[in-house]
Amino acid sequence: MEIGNMDREWMFVDRLDPRYRKGVKQFVRHAINNAENVEEIYCPCVNCGYNVYLDSEELKSHLLSNGIDKSYARWIWHGEDVLPTLCSNLEDDSDFEGDDFDENFNRVDDLINDLKQSTEDPTQVEMFDRLVDAKNIIWHVEGRISDDKIRHPADSTQWKTIDHLFPEFGSEARNLRLGLCTDGMTPFSSLSSQWSTWPVLLTIYNLPPWLCMKRKYLMLSLLISGPKQPGNDTDVYLEPLIDDLKLLWDEGVEVYDAYHGETFNLRAMIFCAINDFPAYGNLSSYTVKGAKACPICEEDTISDHLVHDGKNVYLCNRRLLRWSHPYRDKMKPFNGKQELRNPPKILSGREVYEKVKNIENNFGKPFKKPSNGTLHKKNSIFWDLPYWKHLSVRHCIDVMPVEKNVCDSLIGTLLNIPGKSKNDVKARQDMVAQKTRPELAPQIRGSRTYLPPASFTLSRNEKKDVCECLHGVKVPQGHSSNIKKFVSLKELKLVGLKSHDCHTLMQQLLPVALRGVLPNHV
């Protein structure tokens, strides 16, 4: 079944308009007629993004409540051909060649030119916007709420600093500010470490927050693959991308803007890089292990080495608080002392560049650390970007892996899961060495070591209550994984949690599950 483009006007009217409701019914009938399984139809609403299968009633409900993706001009996931004019001609004349091919190709070319030039018909203009989504590129100027709150990267000081330092770049709202994201993954759904794959993705911060992380707007710029992770050699693989980014900053490229109907010179920059902490060290060149592992404090990092656990801990973060904060005066909950030290000095991009600019890079394995005593391992390739040293925030930490680590440790400690709990004998011994909470010191009773219960220690019945609560949780489709499958009522523990599941637990479910076992005064 083929429906003409003029029947798509309902996609661009208000959802309360009767024409929209009529169009949704028309679309659902079309989807049912072309579906192999009417119980599994792709949902093109703005929230699902073609990632969810629904039945016809759920599909209709989603489209009415969320709205359809306006860029979905050709219904290719619901029975239509990608290029019907060309495809139908190919089927009718399978042995075409020479002039016949040119004629068919020109028809497609004419179709695209007609869409570019047809500014009188708003439906056709909106359909063509699905190619550079030109209108969304300037959302940060025309659609963003501008107040004193940080709702979007455009509200940040760094965004405004770029506009001030580089007015030619900042004056063109269509110039792209990109986020660079990379992390290691194991392919083939395997947990084996025999092969490492590092995708390098670019996301567009000009877009509204609900679009910039959608799959269709993410650009896979590199795929670093090999038997071992790239580590310090990441810069070697990034060199072609950095060359392109320098071109996009210095010269730009000519791009057609379908929304304004004009051609302009598009420029782009890396606004920041987003990684977990180990990848942070690979990209920023800073050593993120050991006594001076903080890339912000650097030499001013204060750490303690735990004798029994053999780890470095960083317990002096109270000095980052304002002077009037009550935590600075409290002693017993912390290390028995008031915190009277100043916060560390934060180095500017220029100051960091002066430290690393003369480092001679040594790539390859085994890695040879520079002998000049610096905490930086190399002169990062990002410093080749002309604007990099002017950015105050160059690397950001991905909150999801951090939240997963915190969630795993919290659940492991609350449920006292073997190998996952942070409340073990070594931890108690280190508390004794630190002269902290003496009432929790381990006690030797014959051949066994007794750990006095802490305020967070749960009885078996309380653990059972928490696990049963989580086991009975039901969440909306697409909200998170089925939490029930992670809960073991026999062993009273949670296993196999993914990052997004940990996020859902930390933000919503865990406080509810713990509420029933808290003391009355809490």
Overview of this structure, please?
- With 522 residues, this protein is α+β, with helices and mostly antiparallel strands.
- The protein is 34% helix and 12% strand.
- It contains 17 helices and 15 strands.
- The chain has helices at 18-34, 56-66, 84-92, 99-117, 122-128, 134-137, 139-142, 157-165, 167-170, 209-212, 234-250, 277-284, 349-356, 399-414, 425-433, 460-471, 499-515; strands at 41-42, 53-54, 176-182, 196-204, 219-226, 253-257, 262-266, 268-275, 304-305, 312-313, 395-397, 443-445, 448-450, 487-488, 493-494.
- The strands form six sheets. The protein has a five-stranded mixed sheet, covered by helices on one side. Strands 1-2 form a two-stranded antiparallel ribbon. A two-stranded antiparallel ribbon has the order 6-7.
- Helix 14 (399-414) crosses helix 17 (499-515) and helix 16 packs across helix 17.
- The longest helix is centred in the first third of the chain and has 19 residues, at 99-117.
- The model is unreliable at 1-6, 83-112 and 114-131 (pLDDT under 50).
Low-confidence stretches: 1-6, 83-112, 114-131
Helicity range of the residues?
A: 25-40%
Question: What is the count of DSSP helices, taking H or I runs of 4+ residues?
Answer: 17
**Biggest sheet layout:** 5 strands, mixed
Number of strands: 15
Apparent shape = globular
Structural class, from helix and strand content?
Answer: alpha+beta
For the termini, the CA-CA separation is 63 Å
Radius of gyration: 29 Å
Spatial strand order of the main sheet = 5-4-3-8-11
Strand content: 5-15%
Q: Could you report the average pLDDT, rounded to the nearest whole number?
A: 83
